[in-house]
């Protein structure tokens, strides 16, 4: 059996507000070099390895970020970028990419991948991807990866897995669950049947389009019929829906592959601990930060350029210095950075 034609779709239109002040409108999280000496967007592409050729990559981003994304991935042709005039969440992005892929080959498989995740085990990732591509090519299923939970996280959506699909390692999906509170997350962890929703999806173009026709035609039909001069008008009227809600929560042909390779969606500054490690006192220095810590522990420090940051007698802080702005907050409130960003729209839009 010949290998199916495969496309990688990289979602690179997000704003990454929880990584402010390093993440800004003109240079958001996916373009930052937070791990491995390259931008998260470029890392997402390079870990595809031999799975995909440069002419089989589609980067879905915003009109404002088109040029920066093209600069980050100079190897890709201009035809490999789809620039949304208005952000309408991941359902619109996935639908537009699927329409473009189906025009080339409706039997092709495409993976829809957030461009701001960190995955250390790239060989393990590619092995999982190959298995998902094979399944999606041969069965009318929507495939996702589920992360084995390591703690009762409240910042992730969950997937309840069901019966095994033979000996492939894949399982049927019983349901998708929104981000839970602590008590419910602890129940999910104890049950052993729940996985974190990775936000990575693999499907055949024609199968995804059929799912849109059945469950979210209001997203697909305007995109299917638009021409290049109508993109702005069409996107202005599209509903803003994540692909999970638009398709996956409603479909009955979804399956999940539980995976155990290390994964992080870098949800806030404190998640850098997971991917960069910490010193003997639990401190993490990132970017160009040169940390001088005395009687200080469990802190995360990031500077855009090479700068020395001294900490004395503090615990559990996030300290970020970028583009002339300094952020200091308790580590347990790092998820709330977007509250500052929300204020800046009225008080200091130039800092966004």
Question: How does this structure look, described?
Answer:
It is a single chain. The protein has 11 helices and 15 strands. With 352 residues, the chain is an alpha/beta fold. The protein has 2 domains: 259 residues, Spore Coat Polysaccharide Biosynthesis Protein SpsA, Chain A (Alpha-Beta Complex), CATH 3.90.550.10; 83 residues, no CATH class. The strands form 3 sheets. Strands 6-9-7-8-10 form a 5-stranded mixed barrel. A 4-stranded mixed beta sheet has the order 12-13-14-15. α3 crosses α6, α3 packs across α7 and α6 crosses α7. The longest helix has 17 residues. The chain starts with 5 loop residues before the first strand and ends in a 5-residue tail after the last helix.
CATH class of the largest domain: Alpha Beta
In which range does the helix fraction lie? 25-40%
Please name the fourth-level CATH homologous superfamily of the largest domain. Spore Coat Polysaccharide Biosynthesis Protein SpsA, Chain A
Uncertain runs: none
Question: Short description, anyone?
Answer:
This protein has 352 residues and is an alpha/beta fold.
């Amino acid at each position: 059996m010949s290998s199916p034609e495969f496309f990688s779709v990289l979602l690179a239109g997000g704003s990454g507000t929880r990584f402010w002040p390093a993440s800004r409108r003109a240079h958001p999280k996916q373009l930052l070099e937070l791990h491995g000496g390259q931008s998260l967007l470029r890392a997402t592409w390079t870990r595809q390895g031999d799975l995909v050729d440069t002419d089989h990559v589609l980067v879905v981003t915003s009109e404002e970020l088109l040029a920066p994304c093209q600069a980050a991935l100079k190897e890709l042709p201009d035809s490999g970028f789809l620039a949304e005039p208005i952000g309408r969440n991941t359902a619109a992005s996935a639908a537009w990419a699927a329409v473009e892929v189906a025009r080339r080959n409706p039997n092709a498989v495409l993976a829809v991948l957030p461009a701001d995740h960190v995955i250390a085990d790239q060989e393990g990732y590619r092995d999982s991807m190959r298995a998902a591509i094979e399944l999606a090519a041969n069965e009318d299923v929507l495939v996702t990866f589920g992360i084995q939970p390591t703690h009762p996280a409240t910042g992730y959506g969950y997937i309840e897995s069901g019966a095994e699909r033979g000996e492939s390692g894949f399982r049927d999906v019983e349901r998708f669950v929104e981000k839970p509170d602590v008590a419910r997350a602890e129940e999910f962890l104890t049950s052993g049947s729940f996985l974190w929703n990775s936000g990575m999806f693999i499907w055949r173009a024609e199968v995804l389009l059929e799912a849109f026709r059945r469950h979210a035609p209001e997203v697909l039909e305007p995109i299917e019929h638009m021409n290049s001069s109508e993109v702005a008008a069409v996107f202005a009227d599209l509903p803003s829906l994540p692909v999970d809600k638009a398709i996956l929560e409603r479909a009955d042909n979804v399956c999940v592959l539980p995976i155990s390779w290390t994964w992080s969606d870098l949800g806030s500054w404190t998640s850098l601990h997971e991917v960069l490690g910490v010193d003997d006192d639990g401190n993490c220095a990132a970017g160009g930060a040169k940390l001088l810590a005395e009687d200080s522990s469990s802190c995360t420090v990031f500077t855009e350029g090479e700068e020395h940051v001294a900490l004395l007698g503090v615990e559990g802080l996030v300290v970020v210095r970028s583009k002339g702005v300094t952020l200091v907050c308790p580590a347990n409130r790092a998820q709330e950075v977007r509250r500052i960003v929300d204020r800046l729209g009225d008080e200091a839009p130039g800092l966004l």
